[in-house]
């Protein structure tokens, strides 16, 4: 069985739509258009693509979260901040992601919930210093296998709280492989447990535009004159 089969099983279990026990779980449908087909005079009422932002409270915190939310809104998304807790019911998380067009999250276990997203949607992972390899292997490649558009924001050395703690030119910040070579627990203690991030709104904005463009291209085309009118309005 593939990761797509596993995703279909999760969707069947959490969607509240049980199927006959004899039938295999069906793959998730493609994402609906970020901007539905509308007449020019209805354009102002068109729904903005929904973007979930997972936040963390103890480590790998986005220190300038209000600016990130504002950037998402200015890029044309409808941002929804979600603080996942251990007691958050899984069906609630599934419902939120199954209806989302995009997810922004700092690298961590919560990113695993991309399994609830539909093909054609966007996963934008914020990758702290020293976690590049884990970000791509654990979440980036699997997300692409499920048909998601995967984007990475790699935190620059000066954007990491480790720069203030150890120094911008320290080995910890400039050459994470030295710490990683000491084993998993040393790597985790420094890069996962002690690090917070400040996102560059300029660089982040470029990824938001790429995400929006992908959703626009992925949207189901309207037929006839309605399509032409809608596309002209979007421009």
List keywords for this structure.
235 residues; alpha/beta; Rossmann fold; 5-stranded parallel beta sheet; 5 strands; disordered C terminus
Can you offer a commentary on this structure?
The chain has 235 residues and is an alpha/beta fold. The chain has a single domain, classed as 3-Layer(aba) Sandwich (Rossmann fold). Helix content is 42%, strand content 11%. The chain contains 10 helices and 5 strands. Strand 1 (50-54), helix 2 and strand 2 form a beta-alpha-beta unit.
Brief summary:
The chain has 235 residues and is α/β, with parallel strands linked by helices. Helices cover 42% and strands 11% of the residues. It has 10 helices and 5 strands; from the N terminus they run H-E-H-E-H-E-E-H-E-H-H-H-H-H-H.
Chain-wise SSE layout:
Elements (H helix, E strand, L loop, with lengths): L2 H12 L35 E5 L10 H10 L3 E5 L7 H9 L3 E5 L15 E6 L4 H14 L3 E6 L6 H6 L4 H4 L1 H5 L3 H9 L8 H18 L5 H11 L1
Parallel strand pairs: 1-2, 1-3, 3-4, 4-5
The coarse overall form would be globular
CATH architecture, by name, is 3-Layer(aba) Sandwich
Under the CATH scheme, which class?
Answer: Alpha Beta
Structural class: alpha/beta
Question: Reading side by side through the largest sheet, how are the strands ordered?
Answer: 2-1-3-4-5
Overall radius of gyration:
19 Å
| CATH homologous group name | Flavodoxin domain
- Beta-strand segment tally: 5
Low-confidence stretches: 33-44, 221-235
Helix content: 40-55%
Mind summarizing the main beta sheet? 5 strands, parallel
Mean pLDDT: 85
Q: Summarize the helix and strand pattern as letters.
A: HEHEHEEHEHHHHHH
Percentage of β-strand residues: 5-15%
């Amino acid at each position: 069985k593939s990761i797509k089969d596993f995703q279909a099983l999760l969707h069947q279990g959490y969607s509240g739509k049980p199927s006959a026990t004899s039938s295999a779980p069906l793959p998730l449908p493609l994402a609906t258009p970020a901007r539905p087909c509308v007449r020019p005079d209805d354009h102002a009422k068109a729904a903005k693509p929904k973007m979930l932002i997972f936040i963390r409270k103890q480590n790998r915190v986005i220190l300038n979260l209000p600016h990130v939310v504002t950037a998402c809104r200015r890029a044309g998304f409808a941002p929804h901040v979600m603080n996942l807790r251990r007691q958050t019911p899984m069906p609630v998380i599934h419902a939120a992601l199954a209806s989302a067009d995009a997810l922004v999250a700092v690298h961590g276990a919560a990113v695993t919930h991309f399994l609830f997203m539909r093909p054609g949607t966007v996963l934008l992972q914020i990758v702290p210093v020293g976690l590049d390899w884990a970000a791509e292997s654990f979440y980036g490649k699997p997300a692409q296998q499920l048909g998601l558009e995967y984007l990475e924001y790699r935190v620059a050395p000066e954007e990491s709280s480790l720069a203030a703690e150890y120094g911008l030119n320290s080995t910890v910040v400039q050459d994470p492989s030295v710490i990683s070579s000491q084993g998993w627990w040393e790597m985790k203690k420094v890069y996962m447990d002690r690090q917070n991030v400040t996102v560059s709104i300029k660089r982040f904005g470029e990824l938001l535009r790429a995400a929006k463009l992908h959703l626009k291209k992925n949207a189901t085309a309207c037929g006839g004159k309605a399509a032409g009118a809608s596309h002209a309005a979007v421009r």
